[in-house]
Amino acid sequence: MLLSEIKFLVLKDIKLEFKQRYAINGILLYVVSTIFVSYLSFAKIIDPATWNSLFWIIMLFAAVNAVSKSFVQESTSRQLYYYTLTSPQAIILSKMIYNFVLMGVLSLLCLLVFTALMGEFVVNYPLFISALLLGSFGFASSLTMISAIASRTNNNFALMAILSFPVVMPLLLILMKVSAAALSVGTVSGNMKFLAALFMLNAIVVAMSYILFPYLWRD
Predict the structure, then answer these.
(1) How confident is the model at residue 43 (pLDDT cuts 50, 70, 90)?
(2) d(CA 108, CA 44)
(3) Residue 208: domain span
(4) Residue 164: is its pLDDT beyond 70?
(5) Among 61, 68, 31, which residue's Cα sits nearest to residue 143?
(6) 57-71, 107-121, 165-179: the lowest-pLDDT one
(7) Sign of torsion, CA 72 206 202 24?
(8) Which long-range contacts (CB under 8 A, 24 or more apart) does 167-171 make?
(9) Helices (H), the chain
(10) Cβ neighbours around 133 below 10 Å, total
(11) How many domains does the chain have?
């Protein structure tokens, strides 16, 4: 039952995204324009450390912009309608899955454009892609829950920005460490503890959201 509800809600979000393509187009424009400005500013002095820092800074702000609309765009009447149809666990899990898909596509596109303009510094692509996918899921899961909390206030985006950075900072620090290893001679096995830490952080966020979101949903 839960899986069927999640599938229905994910398909609903995908259909809504295709109907309101200005949102995803705006995010893509932000990512491409930010990378292009970085290219104009740093093309002559780029190095692996700068490349790594710029990439994750762009990814962080893109994630906040992409996921912040998860619950903010839902009207009160629509949320009440969902409340009568499905469980709160299905709501939060479907939002996380949809945002993970969105962040996965966005991160791979960002990597493609960033590499094309800023140069190819990645040595170990399996390690970097692993970190990128785990980071995308981490951004999606943590920011989805923060978006749910922010949607209960009148100042949605400001609260979203305030709450998001302390929450994603540990995730971001681990991601930068793993990706820095991928830019040198680091291997997947040599960085398994960091990948395991990313996985555990994601699992904790999902578990806490699954437990706590029903209490937030009732309000």
Answers:
(1) low
(2) 24
(3) 2-218
(4) yes
(5) 68
(6) 57-71
(7) negative
(8) 167/142, 167/143, 168/60, 168/63, 168/138, 168/139, 168/142, 168/143, 170/201, 171/135, 171/138, 171/139, 171/142, 171/198, 171/201
(9) 2-19, 21-42, 48-67, 69-72, 76-85, 88-118, 125-150, 156-182, 192-218
(10) 16
(11) 1
The reply to whether the predicted model has a pTM over 0.85 is yes
Least confident of 38-52, 126-140, 146-160, 200-214: 146-160
In angstroms, the CA 46 to CA 121 distance is 10
Residues 7-30 pLDDT 10s: 888 888 787 777 776 667 777 888
CB atoms within 10 A of CB 172: 19
- With CA atoms as reference, report the closest residue to 170 among 211, 198, 130, 133: 198
Residues 184 and 117: beta-carbon distance below 8 Å: no
Q: Output the CA torsion sign for 126, 127, 133, 137.
A: positive
C-beta separation of 183 from 118 below 8 A: no
The dihedral formed by the CA atoms of 78, 83, 86 and 88, expressed in degrees to the nearest 10: 110
- Residue 46 three-state SS: coil
Residue 219 CB burial class (10 angstroms; 0-12, 13-18, ≥19) = exposed
**CA 41/CA 39 separation, integer angstroms:** 5
